Amino acid sequence: MISRGFPPDKFTFPFVIRACVSSSYFRLARVVHGLAIKTGFSNDVFLQNNLIDFYFSFGHKFCACKVFDKMSVRNVVSWTTMVSGLVDSGELDTARAIFEQMPTKNVVSWTAMIDGYAKNQQPEQAFQLFRRMQSENVMPNEFTLVSLLKACTELGSLNLGKWVHDFALKNGFRLEVYLGTALIDMYSKCGSLEDAKKVFDKMRKKSLATWNAMITSLGVYGFGEEALALFTTMETMNGAPKPDAITFVGVLCACVQANDLTQGCKYFEYMTQHYGISPISEHYSCMIELYSRAGMLDEVERLSKAIR
């Protein structure tokens, strides 16, 4: 573009920066940043927001903070990008300080902070902030509720998880893929596979993550036959996603729960030969467990070496 005599403008730089992030081109993005400074576009708020995200994406927190500190004008996206970046960097206290300084907060800002607490084993803080969010009349979105469900799982609170589910239904949230999958995960880990199955059955659209969550939950928590039956349904249903490595973790866990070495060997071979999936450590661990129970120590040693 530049070599052909077309100078970049303020709209060009942000899109190029985002492309660099998507393609992991750190050095090129630094060059683009330098060019933006040289051509006088470095103070554009849209570009600066993208630069903050870029530097956080590559783990350069100091550079991200430097861009933010130099901004003469900040919008809600600027503040929220800082909060999200600091949360992802594990700087929860600093993120909270920035959050509290925000002149205006939107649902994305609140959710970023709530999710930070949920992901960093501070579920009580997540719910405290959510209650404050409600008191300030900010309506949560689907992502807020998913963050709360993570907090419920961390707390191991089935009752609180059911409250979030009821809140979602009463406020018109539909069981779309993201929320539905999070509910399945929460119910399974909080000890209510029946509720997890009800959510799964009600979902009109299911992603690979949805199928994996249900199959793995059934396999891990002792419902091996149901897990394998659901896997068969997944394979034969029109429009269902293709199984991946995580799917077969659930399948092999089901074989372990059923103590069925024959089925385990069958699915392990099927995974590698039919789908071309390379085994990961979880697959090997399941097979080692099955071979150990059968007293086949030579196979245990062979697979143990494969992991190493």
Automatic annotation (TrEMBL):
<protein>
    <recommendedName>
        <fullName>Pentatricopeptide repeat-containing protein</fullName>
    </recommendedName>
</protein>
<dbReference type="GO" id="GO:0099402">
    <property type="term" value="P:plant organ development"/>
</dbReference>
<dbReference type="Pfam" id="PF01535">
    <property type="entry name" value="PPR"/>
</dbReference>
<dbReference type="GO" id="GO:0003723">
    <property type="term" value="F:RNA binding"/>
</dbReference>
<dbReference type="InterPro" id="IPR002885">
    <property type="entry name" value="PPR_rpt"/>
</dbReference>
<dbReference type="GO" id="GO:0009451">
    <property type="term" value="P:RNA modification"/>
</dbReference>
<dbReference type="InterPro" id="IPR046960">
    <property type="entry name" value="PPR_At4g14850-like_plant"/>
</dbReference>
<keyword id="KW-0677">Repeat</keyword>
<feature type="repeat" description="PPR">
    <location>
        <begin position="106"/>
        <end position="140"/>
    </location>
</feature>
<feature type="repeat" description="PPR">
    <location>
        <begin position="176"/>
        <end position="210"/>
    </location>
</feature>
<dbReference type="Pfam" id="PF13041">
    <property type="entry name" value="PPR_2"/>
</dbReference>
<dbReference type="InterPro" id="IPR011990">
    <property type="entry name" value="TPR-like_helical_dom_sf"/>
</dbReference>
<feature type="repeat" description="PPR">
    <location>
        <begin position="75"/>
        <end position="105"/>
    </location>
</feature>
